Amino acid sequence: MTRGPGAYGGPVCNDAAVTVVAFDLRSPDRSPPLSVSDPRPRLSWRLRAGERNVTQSAYRIQIAGEPGFGDITFDTDRVASSQSHAVAWPAAPLSSRQRCWWRVMVETGSGWSEWSPPSQLEAPLWQPADWTAEVVLVGDEDAGPSPLLRRLFHIPSGPIRARLHVTGLGLYRIELNGREVTDELLAPGWTSYDHRLACRTLDVTDFMTPGENILGAELADGWYRGHLTPERMRNVYGPRLGLLAQLELTLEDGQEVTIGTDGAWEWTTGPRRSADLYDGEAYDCCLEVPGWSAPRPGADPEQGEGEHWAPVEVGAMEDRRAVLSRLVPAGPPVRVVEELPVVARWTTPQSIMLDFGHNLVGWPRLLVDGPAGAMVTVRHAEVLAPDGSLHTAALRSAKATDTYVLDGAGPRWVEPRFTFHGFRYSEVASAHPDVSITDAVGVVVSSDLERTGGFACSDELVNRLQANIVRSQRGNFVSVPTDCPQRDERLGWTGDIQVFAPTGAFNFDADSFLSGWLGDLASDQRASGGVPPVIPSCAGRGFKMACAAWADAAVMVPWALYEAYGNLRVLERQYSSMKAWVGYAAGRAGDDLLWTDDFQFGDWLDPDAPAGEPWKAKAPGDYVATAYLAESARIVSEAAALLDESEDAASYSDLALSVRRAMWAAWPDLPRASQTAAALALRFDLVPDAERPTVAAALADRVTEAGNRLATGFVGTPLLCPALVEAGRTDLAYEVLMARDCPSWLYPVLQGATSIWERWDAIRPDGSIHGGELGIREEGGMLSFNHYAYGAVGAWLYRTVAGLAPDAEDPGYRHVIVAPRPGGGLGWAAAGLHSPYGDTSVRWHREGSVFTLELGLPANTWATVNLPTADPDSVRLDGEPPAHQAGLRAWQGTRVDLGSGSYRLSCSL
Ligand code: BGC
After folding, report:
1. Which of 111, 318, 345, 534 would bridge with 2, disulfide CB 3.0–4.6 Å?
2. Among residues 318, 322, 315, 327, which one has the least CA distance to residue 136?
3. Percentage, residues of the chain above pLDDT 70
């Protein structure tokens, strides 16, 4: 017998046969490591089941004030629903500081599960009124040494609970009693500081002691007031560094104590003489302030010997209000995600050269020794020039140089803290002959996102391409999605993430990272609906134009998140931003619905464009812009339907259709004229059905003419292979994928690339390095070896080569589309994904003409498998014709619908 959950939440009796458990409870709205980012956090869980075809029919959630569930505050009772991901918060919104525990039990065909283990949620401070702390400011408006701030205080007994809420104007790091309180780097990250400032809530209970305590912070310029943009602007967001921190303690004796930043704080300068994201750091070990944040028993607690601590300045009341009104919960923290050994080391007459084996983003950590006062200079570059020296021209004005003045106290590890470099090689030099470098580590930093996806196949070069894509994603997901991590740019270029988001959403759980960035996009969007080309915006400070395909990130990125994570909330939040962008673009198009005569980046970096004019692609910018208008209008219409905005759904759908018709009438030849134009036409459905075969044939011709290679820039690159498959030319798609000559994806791999290059020919076949010419800039060039845009082919590797794709109709991989298309001589391919529902995997191999597919689907999901055969009679499921199998959801020809579980299918090719 199986009984439903007792009305009062008591233990529930289950059949011994029940095998389903709910586990891995979490909230997609978590703000790691501690708090949630939404007062109504959505709730998710996964189901583990030992049998096939397990679907949840109902759930029950309980919420309590303590983990034993002795004080249940909310009980949903039975809710008939198959939803196990991003379930709406059922209770009253969480108030500031509120903590609770929740648990879930699920009903499936075999009855109710046990209660899951409990999961904790904690709210940060939601309201400005929650704050008593002031914003404190230090130093003057000029760049200078990093300030150290501190406050000494006394507590009579140890705390049972200590929470620190903190943000900074500029970068900050926090110490409590001599220990750093978190491994987060580059906090508070980069947001659109004019509108949104990320606040972190940390559990610091274990850092406190009864008696004297010191809370300390070190600040640095970072994105807030350090160099930003190729114009090397400074003070983009404000001229002075500041800190807002509030430490809230509940002591053993029940007292509540709050220590906030205020006029009682003091500051001095320390060893970090300068710190800049582009230029690097200067650190003087001789100027360290030992124990500056640690109580020194017996010593004068207020003043260390020779230290000059001055009072901080309390910011103006108006500024405080402005800062408090901008606070948003911080997203995923930047952390050290990997450490790489040195793979080669050699000396030149002036320096030691280190090769970390991969193009990485972070910095080298060095074990150095030498006399007091000796200086060590470390420079960085992604590639070496033919003469073996660092190729620094690509960095343009970014100095990317760290210096250390040694203190002569013996060997010690040194590394920067408030900068990062994009590099593979480091050159370490010192004028002092007695300086030695005895060890080094490549420290890789990134926003610390869960690695969710993996792709592999039988071709090692393609696997290296995939590894390079992942590396470039990591390196360019440092707080915001950037174009590149090394030169004087590192900006949130919208076009780059617009094309890359579907790929990025496979490799990592990018949901909250990109959702947060979309919040910045909406904040920086202009009243006209125009979206600046870099987000966070430096608009009014250089980058002003709103270009198609770039600004379309406003529509495409939310949609990619919806598909990959079933994140309806991102559509709700972004909906007005999405509409505003399409409204802007439609306005630019005007009555004829053709967006013409504005500057467009277009199919940026088309390999056939003049080197110095990357916007002069074969596909005209007007065509690209109008195509994106049609597609974005279509997506807004889909979003409107999901959000029950039926009038919008109809009007945007009409707009999409009208734009398509207008394009076809105006430019009937363009869809056949270039790879990108044809791929856009097929993928964005821009041609009448009757014309699709001719456009498909033209696409194939354009590829053949190019020697079976791609001839696309940023816009066409992610669309080309999917369009060729759609055109019935999977063979050509593989030719393009497997091409080894420039331009191709494998050409850089063969040249030794360990990340995705900005230009197809960043290093030419003769070994010379591209000059990076760019007509609109006089100084330097545009040449990055770490740009994920061309890596946007990754989504096709997962979706079509391996055959694991989401379905916007039932998103988040609740319904998985499994339609592998083998080719390119591959013997096998595989993809695995830790989806919101659990581990989902596809692996196929071919032996002669027999194609075999293994599929793993987590409970509460289902798949439609479309096998690559023309012979439906050859289809087998677990060795039998599907007709003989019980429990199939559906089966027709080569298409089989399967519920959760593990399967083996085969067919003849
Ligand atoms: C960036 C690109 C960006 C482009 C605009 C470049 O400087 O690095 O990735 O999208 O400008 O077209």
Report:
1. 111
2. 315
3. 95
